[in-house]
Amino acid sequence: MWTKKGHLTGQKKPFKLEDIWRIRTRLEIEGNIMELALLNLAIDCKLRSCDLLRMKVRDISSGGVIQNRILYQQSKTEREVQFEITSRTAQSLTQYLMQSGLSSSSYIFPSPRKNGRPMSYSCYATIIRRWASQLGYDYYLYGTHSMRRTKATLIYARTKNIRAVQLLLGHAKLDNTIRYLGVEMEDALNISEDIEL
């Protein structure tokens, strides 16, 4: 579907592995510790933006130590989902939390404008669109859901294990995961490309 301004709307594209490395490198060079922690946690947790942004420091750490496995209840479905925090993400989160001085009851990514509130959806979306623009992409094709889809898409591409992706995303039905990843169409196109007549 297209907007009046001629931009494509609908499902947002996931970032590719090389895109993530390019974004990480840029943020590290800039010394942007907050956005680096945001990028890494968003990719690891595979949560919707509403859940990512409402996470508090106590949800991911205990006694100042970042946990490597988190059990978190999604607000949309009220289903619990488990995710891992990789060592790279734990390192960036530790550095960010030490620098920011946030308490355990603070939102991990607080609003820059409203005290005691989490970062807004629009602020998060603006950050992601900027990342996409810096990569030379049409930022209308990327959004907060790009972060949720990125690792899930990479896991499926590497393993073809749709059930694992379903569990990681917290989907109740396998059909939702198939639709979410665009698996049937992508696989059909790959098969078609491999057959020459």
Order of helices and strands: HHHHEEEEHHHHHH
Give the overall form.
Answer: globular
- Poorly predicted tracts of residues: none
Strand content: 5-15%
Q: In which range does the helix fraction lie?
A: 40-55%
Number of helices: 10
Taking all Cα atoms into account, the compactness measure Rg is 18 Å
Through-space gap between termini: 33 Å
As laid out across the biggest beta sheet, the strand order is 1-2
Largest sheet: 2 strands, antiparallel
Q: What would you call the structural class?
A: mainly alpha
Tally the beta strands: 4
Average pLDDT: 85
What does this structure look like?
- The protein has helices at residues 17-30, 33-45, 49-53, 57-60, 87-100, 121-134, 144-159, 162-169, 174-181, 183-194; strands at 61-62, 65-66, 69-73, 80-84.
- With 197 residues, the protein is mostly helical.
- Strand 1 and strand 2 (65-66) form a beta hairpin.
- Helix 2 (33-45) crosses helix 7 (144-159).
- The chain is globular.
- The two termini are 33 Å apart.
- The model has no long low-confidence stretch (mean pLDDT 85).
Label this structure with key terms:
197 residues, mainly alpha
Quick gist of this model?
Residues 10-193 form the Tyr recombinase domain. This protein has 197 residues and is mainly alpha-helical.
Give the SSE layout:
Blueprint: H1 17-30, H2 33-45, H3 49-53, H4 57-60, E1 61-62, E2 65-66, E3 69-73, E4 80-84, H5 87-100, H6 121-134, H7 144-159, H8 162-169, H9 174-181, H10 183-194
Antiparallel strand pairs: 1-2, 3-4
Helix pairs in contact: 1-2, 2-5, 2-7, 7-8, 8-9
InterPro entries: DNA_brk_join_enz, Integrase-like_cat_sf, Integrase_catalytic, Tyrosine_recombinase_XerCD
Domain Tyr recombinase: 10-193
Family: Belongs to the 'phage' integrase family.
